Amino acid sequence: MSDLSNLVFLESESGEWLNTLPNYQKEIVSELLESSLPEEAAAIWLEASIDTNAPFGTGNEDVEKKYFNYLQDQVYKLLCGDVEYDMERKEVNELVKKNVPKETIISTISAIIGAKIGFAAAFLAPAIVIIFIIIGKISLNAWCSMKKNTNQPQS
Prior knowledge:
- By secondary structure, this protein is mainly α.
- It has one domain.
- About 70% of the residues lie in helices and about 0% in strands.
- The longest helix is centred in the middle third of the chain and has 18 residues, at about 65-80.
């Protein structure tokens, strides 16, 4: 586990993470969260613009769900300690140690992941905020364990 477990998840309310977004995104995401579960809200956000970004599926596949799962996998790699994100995790750890505003952390993480997967940080930020809201409800350690178990091949 990385030092990112100190990433203000324990003391954060959902509204604090939402406040990291520009008002136009915050209003839409708030409405989505009021009418659906956080995972569904993130998938809806991603689905709204997926056609103009990149195809992650073909045919009858559930593209937005697949994309949300892919994004969660990338956040997992960054926050939970995958070697692919070692340097980037150190960068985020430094920001956390300096106690920078959450807006900076969200924009940095969005830019890091966006650069890795080829998407604009502004497009990813709302979904990452929702993932952080989910993590805040259960803790980073529990979320990492849950994601690790879902990423294991079933025997």
